[in-house]
Design goal:
disordered C terminus; elongated; alpha/beta
């Protein structure tokens, strides 16, 4: 659907986007993740034809964005971070104006507006002035305008920023529903947004591509070895050596006891093994009370921090070498 090859975008000498490449498959919801200032918005604006690239190539369904920007724009619906609304117009007046700009035939505009407002659940707001709407409803109007010409691709830049928790849940659910029929690129710096909505994630930091994979692959790649926190009580609980003999446990570390007569152990586990059943059986055999057993799974937040810290460390090494 979309192919991005060796894309760079410079503002003067500053590389906002630095030689990144990734594809977006037909029907995919792609999370484009990165901190503020990472280059996400710049990339989105190059894909949509608002900015020309400094280097590299972008094709949308085989059409080069630079060679035929108009054709690619017809395939894309775009909601920028700064929602482009006319606050003095009613919802219907605004969408009718967008339909005219999109060259939707006059006889089809009312039907099309009705379809999009139903999808975005704003049918009962058609006669209301946009400036009087809540932020959540204004975002819905923005999504409706982005889909008005029935594009195959929908690009959303920070669509839930500034919304309250209920509005965020509603917008995420809407995006999931839209993703059943369209290809969606969701640009965000909010990690739960990606976890709740996306099939795949591309991580960008300081203009460079740091990761490109499914959520499961990302966790497998960066999670390291699993760790089990074990909390036990009973006579002989201080003897941790038997736990180290269990298959799949590489090391055992005793941590500070959380309370008297309670032992807390940290067990480092070999990847792709799960010794929890054997740990339980050993506790039964030793007549120990198992107070708690938790297997730590690295979250997307942890992985994202690891990616950006690695990038910072690499930068420091490069500067030191220079």
């Amino acid at each position: 659907m979309i192919q991005i090859k060796n894309l760079s975008k410079h503002y003067g000498k500053f590389p906002a986007v630095d030689d990144i490449s990734f594809d977006v498959a037909d029907g995919e919801i792609l999370g484009f993740l990165g901190p503020n200032g990472a280059g996400k918005t710049t990339t989105m604006k190059v894909i949509t034809g608002y900015y020309p690239p400094t280097a590299g190539k972008i094709t949308v369904e085989g059409i080069d964005v630079e060679e035929d920007s108009l054709a690619t724009r017809q395939l894309i619906g775009y909601l920028p971070e700064s929602n482009p609304l006319y606050h003095d117009l009613t919802v219907y007046e605004y969408l009718d104006l967008i339909a005219e700009l999109r060259q939707i035939p006059k006889e089809k505009r009312k039907e099309r507006i009705g379809q999009m407002t139903e999808i975005t659940s704003i049918t009962d707001r058609l006669g209301q002035v946009i400036g009087q709407l809540s932020k959540g409803y204004r975002q819905r109007v923005g999504i409706a305008q982005a889909m008005l010409h029935d594009p195959k691709i929908l690009i959303l830049d920070e669509p839930t920023i500034g919304l309250d928790p209920n509005q965020i849940v509603e917008i995420r659910s809407m995006i999931k529903d839209i993703g059943q029929h369209k290809t969606v690129i969701l640009s965000t710096h909010i990690l739960p947004e990606v976890q709740a909505t996306c099939d795949r994630v591309v991580v960008i930091h300081e203009g460079k591509l740091k990761a490109d994979s499914t959520m499961e692959e990302l966790q497998r790649r960066f999670s390291g070895q699993p760790v089990i926190d074990l909390e036990i009580h009973g006579e002989g609980a201080e003897d941790s050596e038997p736990f180290s003999r269990i298959h799949g446990i590489e090391s055992v570390e005793r941590l500070n006891d959380p309370e008297p007569n309670v032992v807390l152990l940290k067990l480092v586990v070999t990847a792709d093994t799960d010794p929890r059943a054997d740990i339980f059986r050993l506790c039964v055999e030793k007549n120990l009370t198992l107070l708690g057993m938790t297997r730590e799974i690295r979250s997307l937040e942890n992985i994202f921090q690891q990616l950006t810290k690695l990038d910072a460390a690499e930068t420091e090494l490069e500067e030191a070498a220079a």
